[in-house]
Design a protein that fits this description.
Blueprint: H1 2-8, H2 20-53, H3 59-80, H4 84-101, H5 108-125, H6 130-147, H7 157-218, E1 222-227, E2 232-235, H8 237-243, H9 264-275, E3 280-287, E4 293-304, E5 310-319, H10 321-355, H11 360-375, E6 380-387, E7 392-400, E8 403-404, E9 413-414, H12 419-426, E10 430-433, H13 434-440, H14 445-448, E11 458-466, E12 469-478, H15 486-536, E13 541-545, E14 551-554, H16 556-562, H17 566-569, H18 581-594, E15 596-605, E16 611-623, E17 626-635, H19 637-659, E18 663-667, E19 673-676, H20 678-684, H21 688-691, H22 705-710, E20 719-724, E21 730-741, E22 746-754, H23 756-778, E23 784-786, E24 793-796
Antiparallel strand pairs: 1-2, 1-5, 3-4, 4-5, 6-7, 6-12, 7-8, 7-9, 10-11, 11-12, 13-14, 13-17, 15-16, 16-17, 18-19, 18-22, 20-21, 21-22, 23-24
Length: 800
């Protein structure tokens, strides 16, 4: 089977197929086609030899050989492309058609032999039952050819039976071979699946074993196995490091060699537990070969052989030495942290209490109750304040057993060599007992002994510092010797410095209160003076708050200006009396930025809504302890009215000048043109923009100043003169000059009228009258001319 499978796996038999069964049939068909091609090549060679040697060979056989070789070759490549069924059916058709066409050339017995080829091939390349179908078709053709008499031999019953038997045998063989192949293929697939499954399981087992070995070797905990005699059988590198030996140094050695002698009994008891199948965990102390002792936590479990017998123990070792050391350190640190937290909490409470008061007595009592009493357990406290100018410490507060003492009765302590003086000079706390004080300080009963209780045994002196300044010395006395620890001294120093800051703030607050009272009195006096000045001034003035422009003060002239009583004006918003409130806000912003606003015209309104115009000036000032504005007003309503009238008259004058058909020209005293209206442009042909600012003589006009000045008193003279325009036209002009005497200057004015057409009309009229007279004088008849009502005779002929 393997040789057969190896033969079918040749590259020449490779075909495309969707399923393994089709691939097998395709390979069989390819093998048959290759064999057929080989046979046809051999037959073609034989026929060529016979034909060339003269042996009787029909020429059709050569053609058939070539045709069949071509068909087999084409079907071979068609089969390789995956078209197996088409190639098989085409091959069967060719094999069946060949004997049918060659019946005339050969006998039917030979054709039966040829029919055997497609019968044998059909079952293997198509299906197991295909051989019977092909056999029936072949025999039908054979019987038909024999019946038609085309055969050269009698009917071959044995050949027909042989073909039927061959077809049946081929069908049975093909069916058996197909089932055998399918069973072999299924068995092979199962075998391959089983092999693949085993290989995967082996790979997983190998990978798991590798990972387990790596895990054991790289584990941070020591892992080892001992036999029943507690001798090491297996140990990882971490276990060797824990026991302090080199690589491989544990194998074969007993664990009792490392355990300290007083714990051998513990190991023996644990071994007995393992022998009974129990798992346990315990701590044991071992000793390295170099003498270093370590504490281990061991977790052990019994190990069994395949028969279930206990063969030893598997142990996991964890070195607790560093852990226990860190745990002990953490416990000490936790205790220290708790103590520091308690101290910090007490100090925080002291800080809050000191920050919440500015009373000196309260500051001293907080120090006594929270620091001396709660923190130190002392009953006596003295505070002496330092006078730097006099170099003296003076008692400020003293308390014993909760009872206030007369600190003023304590004598002042000049700086010397006692503990108070040393504390001031060094600015560092000092702890002494009273035996040392007796040696270095003269006894002052009032200072060293306060109250009627037993004398103190130790005393703490702490400087009270506010920045770089020594405020005083805090003295706490305790009845026990060595009562103050360094941490307590440090905390008391912090509390003393906070108390010094609080005392400094209290002193500053007291000084500030005095200054505020004095400043308030000054402001009140200044406000009275300002109010008196404001009331006495004849100009309208108001004082407003800078933040919201509320009127704080108003004198009588401003009340008269806005038409409202003073009592009603105070408290109102100043911006409500301005027509354009946005402009008023801009003025306030300008005052806030620059400190002043001078002579700004704004439109205001009276209380009844009447508009008025005022000139505003503003200044910043402090009024009643808050920023304010003093605003002065000057009523310019009448001036604005007159200015408006002047502007209106000027507009009317300009409109009259511009719309006049006569030319109007104005010059100053120097004869410079200051006005040239549209009429002058039409009359002279010179543009206004061209003539303004030029000499009058540049225009071609002459204005006799002597007649112009004379015209001021009476009727202006009328002067006729000829004028040549810029375009060359000659015009007759009437000029009426006169003088305008303004407030600041004198102007010369001339009204120019173009009388050219009027002159022409008069000339024409005179000519007509002359002709009429000449005609009338030459008429010899009497006639006259009169008005239509004959009330007046206008002309009488000379004949009459």
């Amino acid at each position: 089977m393997r040789e057969w499978r190896r033969a079918l796996s040749s590259p020449l038999l490779t075909v495309r197929a969707p399923t393994p069964a089709d691939e097998s049939r395709g390979r069989l068909l390819a093998l048959f086609l290759l064999a057929a091609c080989a046979v046809m090549v051999a037959l073609l060679g034989i026929d060529l030899v016979e034909f060339s040697t003269g042996i009787t060979v029909h020429p059709v056989w050569l053609t058939v050989d070539v045709l069949m070789l071509t068909v087999f070759t084409g079907l071979y490549f068609l089969n390789r492309r995956g078209y197996r069924r088409a190639a098989a059916y085409a091959l069967l058709g060719a094999l069946m058609a060949a004997p049918a066409t060659l019946l005339d050339l050969d006998t039917l017995n030979n054709s039966l032999v040829i029919f055997a080829l497609p019968i044998a091939l059909a079952s293997f390349v198509v299906s197991p039952g295909a051989s019977l179908v092909v056999a029936l078709l072949s025999l039908s053709m054979y019987v038909l050819s024999n019946a038609l008499g085309r055969s050269g031999s009698p009917f071959n019953y044995l050949g027909v039976m042989a073909l039927l038997i061959l077809a049946l045998a081929m069908s049975i063989a093909a069916d058996w071979l197909q089932r055998a192949l399918e069973q072999a293929r299924a068995a092979e697939a199962d075998l391959r699946a089983d092999i693949e499954r085993r290989e995967k399981i082996e790979a997983k087992l190998t990978a798991g074993e590798r990972r387990f070995r790596q895990l054991v070797e790289n584990a941070g905990e020591g892992i080892a196995m001992v036999d029943n005699a507690e001798r090491f059988v297996v140990a990882n590198r971490a276990a060797e490091q824990i026991f302090g030996v080199e690589t491989g140094g544990l194998i074969g050695r007993s664990i009792l060699e490392f355990v300290v002698p007083d714990q051998h009994a513990l190991i023996e008891r644990q071994t007995q537990h393992r022998q009974h199948g129990e798992t346990g965990s315990y701590e044991v102390m071992i000793e390295h070969p170099d003498g270093v002792q370590r504490i281990l936590r061991v977790t052990a479990a019994p190990q069994y052989d395949p028969d279930g017998a206990i063969i030893g123990s598997l142990g996991i070792f964890f070195d607790l030495t560093d852990h226990l050391r860190v745990e002990a350190h953490l416990q000490r640190a936790n205790a220290e942290l708790t103590r520091h937290y308690s101290s910090a909490l007490a100090l925080h409470q002291v800080s809050q209490a000191l920050a919440s008061t500015l009373d000196v007595s309260t500051i001293y009592r907080v120090l006594y109750h929270e620091v001396a009493g709660r923190l130190l357990g002392a009953t006596t406290m003295v505070v002496a304040l330092y006078d730097e100018a006099a170099q003296v410490l003076r008692g400020s507060f003293a308390i014993v057993d909760g009872q206030d003492q007369d600190a003023a009765a304590l004598p002042p302590i000049p700086l010397g060599h006692g503990p108070n003086s040393e504390t001031v000079r060094t600015r560092k706390p000092r702890v002494v007992d009273f035996s040392e004080i007796d040696d270095v300080l003269p006894r002052h009963d009032s200072l060293l002994q306060l109250g009627d209780g037993p004398p103190p045994r130790s005393s703490l002196y702490v400087p009270m510092l506010s920045g770089d300044k020594v405020v005083g010395v805090l003295n706490i006395q305790h009845p026990n010797p060595d009562a103050f620890t360094p941490d307590q001294v440090r905390l008391v120093s912090i509390a003393a410095n906070q108390a010094a800051v609080a005392l400094t703030n209290a002193d500053l607050f007291a000084t500030l209160e005095q200054r505020v009272a004095a400043r308030t009195a000054e402001l009140n006096e200044s406000e009275k003076r300002l109010r008196a000045v404001s009331e006495a001034t004849p100009l309208p003035q108001i004082i407003t708050r800078l933040s919201d422009t509320t009127i704080l003060s108003a004198n009588q002239p401003v009340c008269d200006l806005f038409g409202v009583q003073s009592a009603r004006l105070v408290g109102q918003l100043a911006r409500n009396y301005f027509r354009n409130q946005r402009q008023f806000r801009q003025l306030v912003v300008q005052v806030h930025r620059h400190g002043a606003v001078d002579q700004v015209e704004v439109e205001a309104m009276r209380a009844d809504g009447t508009p008025i115009w005022v000139v505003v000036s503003m200044r910043l000032l402090d009024y009643g302890g808050e920023p304010a504005l003093i605003t002065g007003f000057h009523d310019v309503t009448e001036r604005k009215r007159v200015e408006q009238i002047v502007r209106d008259n000027e507009a009317k004058f300009r409109s009259l000048v511009e719309q006049s058909h006569d030319g109007i020209v104005l010059t100053d005293a120097r004869s410079l043109i200051v006005e040239w209206n549209h009429g002058m442009e039409v009359i002279t042909g010179l543009a206004r923009s061209q003539m303004l600012g030029r000499w009058l003589s540049d225009s071609g006009l002459t204005l006799p100043l002597d007649k112009t000045r004379a015209a001021r008193a009476g009727q202006p003279p009328v002067i006729e003169q000829d004028f040549v325009r810029a375009d060359g036209q000659r015009r007759s002009l009437q000029v009426s000059p006169f003088t305008l005497q303004l407030e600041r200057e004198q102007l010369f004015c001339a009204i120019v009228r173009d009388v050219t057409e009027h002159r022409r009309a008069e000339d024409a009229l005179r000519d007509s009258e002359t002709r009429f007279r000449q005609l009338a004088e030459n008429i010899r008849e009497v006639f006259w001319m009169s008005l239509p009502d004959k009330s007046k005779v206008l002309y009488v002929s000379p004949v009459y």
